[in-house]
Amino acid sequence: MPIRIAVDAMGGDYAPLEIVKGAVQAAREYNIAIQLVGDEVQIKNELAKYDTAGLDIGITHTDEVIEMGESPAKALRAKKNASIVLTVASVAKGESDGLVAAGSTGAAMAASLFGLGRLPGIKRPVICCTMPTTKQPIALLDGGANSDCEPEMLLEFAIMGRIFAQLILGYENPKVGLMNIGEEEGKGNEFTKATFNVLNAKKEIINFIGNVEGRDTFTGDVQVVVCDGFVGNVILKTAEGALKMVTKLIKQEFMSSPLNMLIGLISKSVFSGIKKKIDYEKIGGALLLGVKGVSVISHGSSNAYAIKNAIRVAKEAVEKNVNEKIVEMYNESMKEVN
Amino acid sequence: MPIRIAVDAMGGDYAPLEIVKGAVQAAREYNIAIQLVGDEVQIKNELAKYDTAGLDIGITHTDEVIEMGESPAKALRAKKNASIVLTVASVAKGESDGLVAAGSTGAAMAASLFGLGRLPGIKRPVICCTMPTTKQPIALLDGGANSDCEPEMLLEFAIMGRIFAQLILGYENPKVGLMNIGEEEGKGNEFTKATFNVLNAKKEIINFIGNVEGRDTFTGDVQVVVCDGFVGNVILKTAEGALKMVTKLIKQEFMSSPLNMLIGLISKSVFSGIKKKIDYEKIGGALLLGVKGVSVISHGSSNAYAIKNAIRVAKEAVEKNVNEKIVEMYNESMKEVN
Question: Domain range spanning residue B166?
């Protein structure tokens, strides 16, 4: 049986068009089965645009959708058959091996948590993001699941991030750093000072190297960066904003004179090389770690390429038993305490 | 009498060489007097390298220096004649109108706070940073003075940031946004939810437009972004890191083949145009707002150009009576309460 990934076909700014397109591409490229969840008529209309011969693409029909602006908790209570709920249910019932959702992050998180439950030992699921660096990509967590954290939660994040960095990013012994505003021990706010001590007590198990700063997120020298979900989300959006600013300034500059426009044409290939290296769409989506199942949450503005890559991430997480490994490592780290 | 700026000649990675060089340039370019504080022999050696004819450059000798690694509090107690202490004292005694320091940020902050005292009404001084955007620069505060904040402190930051954005950045009625992880009211962690209410209660006085996100720091659409010093510092260093990553990737790509190297040569002028727009050195330094005096804190790695610009910022803050205006606006905002 090939791996089957359930995809919320109705979630995201470009749903169902780009979602279905990305799903078809993934089915063909990765040789996997896809379960599209959403309005059957709309999905079939989209599917009809592509050659799906020989592909295993199922449809679970529903006409309920949770919109981006809705309160996740309320919406989940009111819409028992929302596409995200049925997408998660497909995994919970064992009909699919993992899921991808590009709609409301809050709804996808809540639906995954309620529908799948937590991994044994894990108190708080976490959004594990992949960040581009000048070397290889690294993991940043929490990307925004828990905006207020207790120090102990960051130990769980470190454990989950290490497994992700090993199995999905391919690091043998990834280093874990605590996001802070100074490298020396004793730096930071009350929260990071307390968290430092919690992580430092498990130094050997999690390969904790100490505090890191905002700029260290992009060097590749630390492979797992942990922080609370507020700070993590600010980092993600700040990085996104800074990169967009540069892109815009480069474009502006290349448009500022006929000579610059010519230079722009000449150097186009160079920029597409750079773009590939910091391509958030290639990253596809963030894994919600700590739930009993593979759940990949994509950016609301995901296009087909991003969805295809999100499905790849889900497939890899299933193949590599990320969740089992997290439980194993968690138990190991707890053993050391007693 | 021309404006006189006291400069800690011994602070920063390239002190006293780059500090003295930048100070001489500023003295000539802005027609101001400079008081260099530090080792007289070293300073004179540096001064001898330049044409200082007609410039008013004084020296206050001291051989004590607070190093980057030292605990600011301890060092300030132990080194009563440290260059940063005497630099601040020059302003406190009225011998200079403002100061610039590029050494330990913690020491410069603490020395300024102890030596100058707080402005009436202001509880916590704040580091007010200038951030490049795709349009004009904006203000971000707190850049790192207060790593743990109470919601009420951010109202002070907003007041001080508004004055800075009006007088130094030149905005008529700058918009104030609260750094958060979602735009809608009710988003965020406990701290930002509480802070939202505090700022919203003074909405009209501070021109509060609500929550903003990491990416909004770079669009120029909001001109004053407030957050606690931990988050602010993370944003600054994340932006710095992301921009450095792009620069490095661009360089790598241009070096990757002879053709790309040629394209790199051709497009060099375009990049220097962009570099100018996001030039942190041109910004010079951050104002420590809320103390009774003008105190500009520069990056530890400041070169002469950055120091010259930091001195320009100090000069402008003196000329435009930033501190008096802060007190006026603070009193006004308090009046509205009663």
Answer: 128-282
